[in-house]
Write a structure and sequence with these properties.
Number of helices: 5
Strand content: 25-35%
Radius of gyration: 24 Å
Structural class: alpha+beta
Order of helices and strands: EEEEHEEEEHHEHEEEHE
Length: 199
């Protein structure tokens, strides 16, 4: 059974959370972002529980449902101020194996599978300096006599790619929605928030 993390935009005013959007053409609420657990980051772990006294009547109308016993229920909601969303870039940079970059650009693998072997610019500079001074690293073998794969600096290249499975990417999508929905007729002193429900 699929499990999803769903994000909706709202605002907080005087301790209550109100819905803001997005909505479809018929006025039905739609998620700013929805990710299945298989592909979601851990962004949802940064959220706080919405206490009952924080739920506005307008928010309750969106999320209340009738369960199998014909009882009205409210799901467990969480929230995070938009200002608290991660602000780092979802563009990942560094030195990656040239062979992995070629596979990625040819569509023969995704970033999660390919870009686990990454070195920082300072490590790359040290590797390059050592190879110029001492030559390429010699082969090494483990206790069973199996060759340990080691790469020389010449096998790496500087590269940048968008990490669509990162919390930074999810935050950027949500933040973009939130700022698009912000209007001048919101009450004075409001704060944009992200509302999260899951299941």
């Amino acid at each position: 059974m699929s499990y999803y993390y769903n994000y909706f935009i709202g605002y907080m005013h005087e301790g209550k959370i109100y819905p803001l959007g997005p909505y479809d053409a018929k006025g039905n609420p739609r998620d700013a972002l929805s990710r299945s657990r298989s592909f979601a980051s851990d962004l949802h772990e940064d959220f706080y529980v919405v206490r009952d006294e924080m739920i506005s009547d307008e928010l309750r109308k969106i999320y209340e449902y009738t369960d199998y016993k014909d009882e009205v229920e409210m799901p467990r909601l969480k929230y995070l101020r938009v200002a608290e969303l991660p602000k780092e870039s979802f563009i990942k940079k560094g030195y990656f194996l040239i062979r992995d970059v070629v596979l990625y650009e040819e569509g023969d693998g995704d970033a999660d599978e390919l870009f686990y072997d990454r070195i920082s610019p300072s490590v790359y500079a040290a590797m390059m300096k050592n190879e110029i001074t001492f030559g390429k690293p010699e082969d090494e073998y483990d206790a069973e006599g199996e060759k340990i794969e080691r790469h020389s600096a010449s096998e790496y290249m500087y590269y940048a790619y968008p990490d669509y499975s990162s919390k930074e990417y999810e935050a950027e999508v949500i933040r973009t929605f939130a700022y698009r929905l912000e209007t001048y007729d919101l009450p004075k002193g409001f704060e944009l928030v992200v509302i999260e429900d899951e299941g």
